[in-house]
Write a structure and sequence with these properties.
Strand 8 and strand 9 form a beta hairpin. The strands form two sheets. A seven-stranded mixed sheet has the order 5-4-3-6-7-8-9. It has a single domain, classed as Rossmann fold. With about 190 residues, it is α/β, with parallel strands linked by helices. It contains four helices and nine strands.
């Protein structure tokens, strides 16, 4: 995490708060997750250098950059075009070439590039989207916040030959996963 300059991924007016353990607004009703949460998610993924990773919710590109430091290839989906473009420019400027970003509905994943070794979702879902489960390799892991009994919980899901193992990693707080397999857009 010390290799990625977090202050470049937040609005300039908030750069002095970039290294505090806080979620910060990045525009368009979105946030950059607090460093502790990002580290927890990355650790839970159990990333390996050769992994092909799907990220849902590019946002500012901060976690995208961290993923690029830790694995082979990153495919990131962002539903807000302006955030995707801003993240792409910054990631290019920092030399992160093994990252592909597309604008689209993250709740349905990136089926053309599946399967993935790891999937990380930076927005809470009403349930685990089945398209994401189907894009996870056997033995692969997904980290996703899900609403359970009215509470937001972070889960690690492992794809097994006979189903899925689901581990509760504790309470969390994220923006909503908007899309066909997520929450409906409030607009």
């Amino acid at each position: 995490m010390s290799k990625v300059p977090r202050h470049l991924f937040v609005p300039e007016a908030l750069a002095d708060k970039a290294y505090l353990d806080l979620a910060l607004p990045i525009g368009y009703g979105q946030t950059i997750s607090q460093p502790y949460t990002v580290a927890l998610m990355l650790e839970a993924l159990e990333l390996e250098e050769g992994n092909k990773v799907l990220e849902i919710g590019t946002g500012s590109g901060y976690m995208t950059a961290l993923l690029a430091e830790l694995c082979q290839r990153v495919f990131s989906v962002e539903r807000i075009p302006e955030l995707a473009q801003r993240a792409r420019r910054l990631l290019d400027a920092l030399g992160y070439e093994k990252v592909l970003i597309k604008v689209g509905d993250g709740s349905v994943g990136w089926p053309e590039e599946a399967p993935f070794d790891k999937i990380v979702v930076s927005a809470s879902a009403p349930q685990v989207p089945s398209p994401l489960l189907s894009q996870l390799k056997e033995g692969g892991k997904m980290v996703i916040p899900v609403i359970v009994n009215g509470q937001e919980r972070l889960f690690r899901i492992t794809a097994l030959s006979n189903g899925y193992k689901r581990e509760d990693l504790g309470p969390c707080r994220f923006v909503k996963l908007i899309g066909k397999e997520g929450w409906k857009d409030d607009k």
